[in-house]
Amino acid sequence: MSKTPIKKALLIVAALATTGSALAAGKLEIFSWWSGDEGPALDALVKLYKEKYPTVAVDNATVSGGSGTNARAVLKTRMLGGTPPDSFQVHAGQELIGTWVVAGRMEDLSGLFKSEGWSKAFPADVLKLISTKDGVWSVPVNVHRSNVMWYNPAKLKEWGVTVPKTWPEFITTCATLKKKGVAAPLVVGENWTQQHLWENVMIGTLGAQGWENLFSGKTKFTDPKVVGAFTTFGKVMDCANKDASGLSWQQASDRIISGQSAFNVMGDWAAGYYTTTKKLAPGKGFGWATAPGTSKTFVMLADSFGLPKGVKDRAEAINWLKLLGSKAGQDTFNPLKGSIAARTDSDLSKYNTYSRSAATDWKTSKIVGSLAHGAVAPESFMSAFGAVIDQFVTSKNSAGAAAAAQALAVRSGFGK
Ligand code: GAL
After folding, report:
1. 72 lines ligand 1 (CB under 6 A)
2. What pLDDT was estimated at residue 13?
3. Closest Cα to atom 5, ligand 1: which residue?
4. Does ligand 1 come within 6 angstroms of the Cβ of 37?
5. Which residue, 50, 53, 105, is CA-closest to 75?
6. 65 close to 193: Cβ distance less than 8 angstroms
7. Would you state the pLDDT for residue 101?
8. Which pLDDT value is given to residue 21?
9. How remote is the CA of residue 262 from the centroid of ligand 1, in Å?
10. 301 lines ligand 1 (CB under 6 A)
């Protein structure tokens, strides 16, 4: 059947919308947990989007709460209710794949990866994390490092201590600091930050391979080495502040600068907070080292955005994803965020000394995925594991916690 002029015009309009012409008017809702102190890097990216697509109204919807603990619950309601945001932040890896991909709720982005040349622009480790045999599921905007220990160089000098290299050494340094009147040598915050610390104690004790074996089902959580690492975690937690559950990660980071505590194990969004929000100079205002026992390992996680099926503003969302994956997008976002670009062609002259050191380690270290930030286990495990940590911190029952974790691993399908 031949096309009428009206049909032709409609087809042209539709084609313009899907190719993302700058002329296209429209809307875009992006959903994330990057609000307030966490906002500047995302704001810079949104600004870039608006420059490219000036007629698109961007709704930058955020649900605050570190590591997405609150945002994930809201997202769930929206996905199940049939009103998905046009694109949402999600940790690359099992957090997305084990939840919304297996439920058939996400669009396969293989075509976009091909047309944008991303299969070459992103390293194999990152591509593996976001792919299954059926497709590629989200666009990573960064690579964060989880295994970093932050400190205040001037305060360590004043106390006469150095950064501990192993967890047993940390426990000794903790005793020294307590004798010097530092009541809480380590600062931790709410539950997810304790899970973050736990993963670093585990990796620092079991080694990178030992950690991977837990999530491939090769090693059981009830293995004596894992039980022993729980006991070490208990001793590490004895060095921490007693008001942890009421503290955000930013408030915990503040205590390093004020000198109330000596050490904080946190991902490198803390570098973004120190430099972008607090205007501190890396190496002077704050210092960093790999978490004890993990000097040859890079514990990674990546923030990514996906495209749910059936969104209202698909063309605008695709343009958002294109920007996220582009060199310009990544090199705008990451210098403010504390992370490094997921792309291999990033311009490191735009980054500070902390990020450059992370970029070097990213290339030379053994890479493993973070549990606390969605890379290695499905959300069903992650969210239930929070209760295991809560109970352990009160009871200090290593065998009990290990058995509970093992039961969860079996239920989540990776434990044998
Ligand atoms: C992580 C996320 C980071 C940062 C952090 C604190 O899970 O990957 O980008 O937002 O939580 O909220």
Report:
1. no
2. 46
3. 67
4. no
5. 105
6. no
7. 97
8. 45
9. 22
10. yes
Tokens read off for 335? 């210098």
CA of 66 to the centre of ligand 1 (A): 6
**Residue 18 confidence (pLDDT):** 46
CA of 220 to the centre of ligand 1 (A): 28
- For ligand 1, what atom is nearest to the CA of residue 34? 10
Half-sphere exposure of 139 (CA within 13 A, CB side): 31
Q: For residue 416, what pLDDT is reported?
A: 86
Dihedral over alpha carbons 339, 341, 344, 346 (to 10 degrees): -110
Q: How far apart are CA 164 and CA 396, in angstroms?
A: 23
Give the C-alpha separation, 351 to 331, whole Å: 8
Q: Say if ligand 1 is within 6 A of residue 67 CB.
A: yes
269 lines ligand 1 (CB under 6 A): yes
Ligand 1 atom 7: the closest Cα is on which residue? 67
Residue 272 CA to ligand 1 center (angstroms) comes to 11
Alpha-carbon Rg for the chain in angstroms? 22
Quote the CA–CA distance of 231 and 392 in Å, as a whole number: 10
Query: What integer pLDDT is reported at residue 10 of this predicted model?
Result: 52
Tell how far the Cα of 13 is from the centroid of ligand 1, in angstroms: 38
β-strands 303-306, 87-91 pairing: antiparallel
- pLDDT recorded at residue 383: 87
Nearest to 267 by CA among 303, 301, 232, 229: 301
Contact criterion met (CB below 8 Å) for 45 and 327: no
Distance from the CA of 251 to the center of ligand 1, in angstroms? 15
Instruction: Quote the tokens at residue 81.
Output: 């209710």
pLDDT tens for 356-401 read: 999 999 999 999 999 999 999 988 899 899 999 999 999 999 999 9
> Phi and psi of 25, rounded to 5°?
-85, 160
Phi, psi for residue 62 in degrees, rounded to 5: -130, 145
Low-confidence ranges of the chain (pLDDT < 50): 1-3, 12-22
Which residue do the tokens 């403010």 mark? 336
Assess whether the C-beta atom of 196 lies below 6 angstroms from ligand 1: no
pTM, entire model: 0.94
Q: How far is the CA of 390 from the centre of ligand 1 (A)?
A: 21
What are the phi and psi torsion angles at 192 (to 5°)? Answer: -65, -30
Q: 185: which 2 tokens?
A: 């040598």
With H, G, I as helix, E, B as strand and everything else as coil, classify residue 369: strand
d(CA 97, CA 412): 13
